[in-house]
């Protein structure tokens, strides 16, 4: 019959060991979760931001093409006063071209709002006006990003300033008298004038949805955490098996032997453990103590 302390000993060792390793894991698991969640969300944000910059570059390419090739061809028509070719305006061309893209991806938007636009369709919303005013108040600012809530989820916006960098722009936007007659006839003489050289008048604004990248980031996060949890369970099982055979089993056996010897049973066989680890040293010490006790008991016999 086993002494009750032997079972408690094994349970105590396992409990303390598992409690220590579970506590360490939970601390590490929580820390890793916080770090990885931020990492995956930031990675998703950078991916969306890169997509926004690609869209911005594509819009710039359209504007550059129109300014270089279409504008000179349409200039005589615009100056004639009979018809205004809106497609000769880089901003108009870029936004119109992007509407074809938006037809397939409605959550993606590209706009070039201005505080005092020629075309009233280019008036900014409140949050777009905030971007423009930030650029006007901070001349060295080249780019702004922000995340806002939309009916379809979070969306990231990338904004860059639109400034009057060339005197050629003032030909259309300084005064109605200097503007092409066709432009004034089309849009009127009230809006889009009074611009000044080097003044920030508007902003390029690209908006890209973040719902799908955030969902993917969350899925990757949960997958990684599940893998981490699975690895921990496997490690705990392996460590418990090693603990049982390397520590608990020999210690329980030594405990039983010590208990029997303490009750006067000197017929208990010695426990032999090969090696130089702590359990082997303990077993050798116990065997020497047992032999010494046996010799002492014999010397006391009459």
The average pLDDT score comes to 84
Between the first and last Cα atoms, what is the distance in angstroms?
32 Å
The H-and-E topology, N to C, reads as: HHEHEEHHEHH
Strand order of the largest sheet: 1-4-3-2
| Main sheet overview | 4 strands, antiparallel
Which structural class fits the helix and strand makeup? alpha+beta
Question: Any low-confidence stretches, pLDDT <50, length ≥5?
Answer: none
- Range of strand content: 5-15%
Structural Rg: 40 Å
Please work out how many helical segments DSSP would assign. Answer: 7
Which bin fits the share of residues in helices? Answer: 55-70%
Number of strands: 4
Choose one word for the global shape. rod-shaped
**Structural domain count:** 2
Descriptive notes:
The protein is α+β, with helices and mostly antiparallel strands. It folds into two domains: about 5-35 and about 220-300, HAMP domain in histidine kinase (Helicase, Ruva Protein, domain 3); about 45-210, no CATH class. About 65% of the residues lie in helices and about 10% in strands. The protein contains seven helices and four strands, in the order ααβαββααβαα. Strands 1-4-3-2 form a four-stranded antiparallel sheet. The chain is rod-shaped and about 140 Å long.
